[in-house]
Predict the structure.
Amino acid sequence: MNFCSHCACPVVFERIEGDHLPRYICHTCQKIHYQNPRVIVGCLPVFNGKVLLCRRGIHPQLGFWNLVGGFMENNENIMEGAAREAAEEAHIDLELIHLLSVFTVSRINQVHIHFLAEMKTPNFELTPESTEIAFFDPKDIPWNEIAFQSNLFALRSWLENLANGQYKTHVGSYELPTF
Ligand SMILES: [Zn+2]
């Protein structure tokens, strides 16, 4: 950030007394521009014991298999966001069952939240974001072609819950190498 989004004057990056981190500060209008992680909401959609995966038609991770999900919008809750993304990316109608996983990717300042969801019907439609959509039995999950660590974490969490007959919420994180 170079300029204040409030008054368009240049900002400085500095730590103010009493705070533990530097912030972008506008000394003209005194506004402090806090920057915080963004929330990604999604679902692990299941029908008859199989998980629905979508092959990504967009970057990043083009061509890899994805769980439906995307950036949470303002003025919606996480359940609404997860269901909206499922409708947008695969035109599926589902019922959220429980909070499956919460996964932090701290180096890119993101929190990924996935719900286990039951599809009301097996129907889906391809979209520009999802160029191929398919159901996978747990033993057939294409582990080497899964996009994003948070999807791997959600899938592993689902399998662990299945094996243990539980609805546990799994919490994890991934720190990218700092070089
Ligand atoms: Zn300003």
Summary: The pocket of zinc ion is lined by residues 4, 6-7, 9, 26, 28-29, 31 (CB under 6 Å). The first helix runs from residue 78 to 90.
